[in-house]
Structure formats: structure tokens, C-alpha cells
Design a protein that fits this description.
Blueprint lengths: L4 E6 L5 H10 L3 E7 L3 H10 L3 E3 L11 E4 L6 H10 L4 E4 L6 H14 L3 E4 L6 H9 L5 E7 L11 H17 L3 E9 L8 E8 L4 E7 L6 E8 L2 E6 L4 E7 L1 H5 L3 H5 L6 H12 E4 L8 H15 L7 H20 L1 E2 L2 E2 L8 E2 L4 E2 L2
Parallel strand pairs: 1-2, 1-4, 2-3, 4-5, 5-6, 7-10
Antiparallel strand pairs: 7-11, 8-9, 9-10, 11-12, 12-13, 13-14, 15-16, 17-18
Helix pairs in contact: 1-10, 3-4, 4-11, 6-11
């Protein structure tokens, strides 16, 4: 019988507690510790999962085989590199780091040590996205929307690294081509960083993607849509629904509805009824039940057991981070009313110049 993988969760916040719960319940995994400087918080999560609490993760680096790193983004590089230096495989929550320089340093460290590095782009494990991806062939246009209520967490980063980073990873996966141009603008509503961001990416293969991220929205919306020669695939990632609209043989090989509509005596009401059904067919596949975070952590554990490459490795996390930095650069360079002012809003605070932009 194989020895259990000794697992630790570093960071016991809103998401870290779920990492701990799931790791504690996986076969062949022993949750040996929860590391959290906030004693009350860390002790509660450790107690709930029959584990022990430590204030400082460095106490346990020689006693674990793997770790989830679920701390504020600004701490990712320091903690991840220390784990990697001790030969500990890591699952670091998205984004990989707060900036490209730190992200590259993490990837170099993992490569140098030969240590498994997985990045927590959880939507890759969403069965709705996985089903949509199977149906997308050479996309020409992609649209992604990710809206959520203000959560009062991840306030040290903008909506680009908080929300849009998910869809940047998905869009890069779908387009499978280098980004050649980025345009973006952002608005700050709650104070600190841009809360609403709109971006357009252009790819070397001609694909165009529009991405919208809004973390001050009344409700949740997480959708991605792709247009290609195979039709239009829409995935509701929140409700886990996929619809595939594609042309029928009648539309591809017969007289077009446009041509039929020009003929004398054309029955326009009948043609309207025939659009969806006779000319465009709709398929709505059944989506499997799946807890994404369980699938993600389970995949990480299997990669450790089999010494295999994660689905979302350091290079994938870095690629999303590099485009995120381009989006932020475009946001900060955007011209409002002829003046380069970056994000705007009632409470936007420019942390670099310590001034408020009206």
C-alpha cells in the first residue's frame, strides 16, 4: 500500500478552507497541517478537518509532500519559491503572481528544481467549458463575460487579476495562437483598483476576443461564446449549460433562406419559423455533475503520484499573466476626454502617485 501524500494548505481564508476540506477528504491524502497566521481562523479550519494548525508554513516544509497556496496574490512568489526550494509540489491559486516578473521567477524555480507547479485556473475543470472546447474548431471570434457581486476580497488586485484572468486562460486555450494586440479600459467603483474592465485581444491567426469583467454586479454571470466554421458554441459556466448552433445540410447545400426570401410569393412567416430547426440546428448536450475544485485538487494529486504534467502548468499560468499585464497596461494608458488617466471612477485611487483621479 502506498504511503499517503502528506498535504498542507497555506492560507485559511474563504477559499483556503475549501482546499483544506477537499484535501482532507481525498483518498490517499493526509492533511497534515493548515498554515495561517490568523490563529482563530487557522485553528478553526484545522479543527474542522482533523488537522493541526501552524502559524508559520516554514515549520512544516520538511514534513509535507504537497501544498495548496491560497494566500493574497502579493505573497505568491515568496511562499511558492520557498516551497519549491524544499522540493514541495505546489498548487498555487490564480493568478500565478502579481506581476510577470514574479510569475517568471516562480516558473524558473519550478523548472530548476524539477518540481510540479500547478496554477489554480479552476474553470479548466468546469465540465461546461470542457464540453464547449471539444466543439470549438479554429474560432474566429470569442466573447467572454464574468460578472459577480463585490466580495470584499482580492482587494489588493484589480478585476483583471481577480476575474478576467480566468477567461484570459480560457480564451488563450481556445484561440491557440499568440496575442498580437491588446486594447482595454477600466473603471473603479469601490476604491483601490479597477473593478470593471473591458478588453479586446487580437491573435496572430486572425481570431478576435472581447472580454468583460465586472466585480460590482448585482448577480453572477460567467459565459463564453465562440464563433467558427463549425457554428456558434455558447457555454454558461455558472449554470453549466452548453448550446451548439450549427448549419444544417439544408442551409449548406440548398437554396439559402436569403435567396428564397427574394422569390415572388415568398412565405416570410414560414421562413422565420424555419430558421432554427430547418436551417440552424441546436444541440444542448448533457453536462456531467462535477465539483470543479475537487477535480482540480484531485488532478494535482494524481500528477504528483504519476509525476505527470498538470493540465494548467506554470507556463499556462504565466501566459495568462503576461496577457493580463498587457490588459492592465492598456487600461492605465487609456485616454479619457483626451487625457491619459487610466481607470476612472468616483473612488479610483492611483497607488503609484498617491492621488485621486476624478
Amino acid at each position: 500500500m502506498k504511503k499517503p501524500i502528506r498535504y498542507a494548505v497555506i492560507g485559511a481564508g474563504a477559499l483556503g478552507r475549501h482546499h483544506a476540506r477537499i484535501a482532507a477528504g481525498l483518498d490517499g491524502v493526509e492533511l497534515v497541517a493548515v498554515a495561517e497566521p490568523n490563529a482563530q481562523q487557522g485553528q478553526a479550519v484545522a479543527c474542522d478537518n482533523d488537522s493541526r494548525w501552524v502559524a508559520d508554513y516554514r515549520e512544516i516544509l520538511d514534513a509535507i509532500d504537497a501544498a495548496s497556496i491560497v494566500v493574497p496574490t502579493s505573497q505568491h512568489r515568496r511562499i511558492t519559491e520557498e516551497c519549491i526550494t524544499h522540493g514541495v509540489p505546489v498548487l498555487v491559486e490564480k493568478p500565478l503572481a502579481g506581476n510577470v516578473e514574479d510569475g517568471r521567477a516562480i516558473v524558473r524555480a519550478a523548472a530548476g528544481q524539477g518540481t510540479i507547479l500547478q496554477v489554480g485556473h479552476i474553470e479548466r475543470f468546469n465540465p461546461a467549458f470542457q464540453e464547449a472546447l471539444k466543439r470549438v474548431q479554429s474560432p474566429k471570434y470569442i466573447r467572454a463575460e464574468r460578472f459577480s457581486p463585490y466580495a470584499f476580497r482580492s482587494m489588493d488586485i484589480s478585476a483583471v487579476h481577480d476575474l478576467m484572468i480566468h477567461d484570459l486562460d480560457l480564451v488563450l486555450t481556445m484561440a491557440a495562437s499568440p496575442v498580437t494586440h491588446v486594447e482595454a479600459f477600466g473603471i473603479c467603483v469601490m476604491g483601490g483598483h479597477a473593478d470593471i474592465v473591458q478588453a479586446r485581444l487580437k491573435f496572430a491567426n486572425g481570431c478576435i476576443a472581447d472580454l468583460s469583467a465586472n466585480r460590482v454586479n448585482p448577480g453572477f454571470r460567467r459565459c463564453i461564446q465562440s464563433w467558427s466554421a463549425s457554428g456558434c458554441v455558447t457555454a454558461d459556466l455558472h449554470n453549466r449549460e452548453v448550446k451548439h448552433y450549427r448549419p444544417t445540410d439544408k442551409l449548406l447545400n440548398g437554396p439559402t433562406p436569403h435567396a428564397l426570401a427574394q422569390m415572388p410569393g415568398a412565405d416570410i412567416p414560414q421562413l422565420k419559423e424555419a430558421v432554427f430547426g430547418e436551417y440552424i440546428e441546436t444541440e444542448q448536450p448533457q453536462i456531467a455533475e462535477c465539483d470543479q475544485l475537487t477535480a482540480e485538487i484531485g488532478h494535482f494529486v494524481e500528477c504528483i503520484r504519476n509525476d505527470s504534467q498538470p493540465l494548467v502548468d506554470g507556463q499556462a499560468g504565466l501566459a495568462a499573466l503576461e496577457v493580463a499585464d498587457q490588459v492592465l497596461a492598456s487600461v492605465n494608458a487609456h485616454s479619457w476626454s483626451g487625457n491619459v488617466a487610466g481607470p476612472i471612477g468616483p473612488h479610483f485611487h492611483d497607488v503609484h502617485t498617491q492621488r485621486h483621479v476624478a
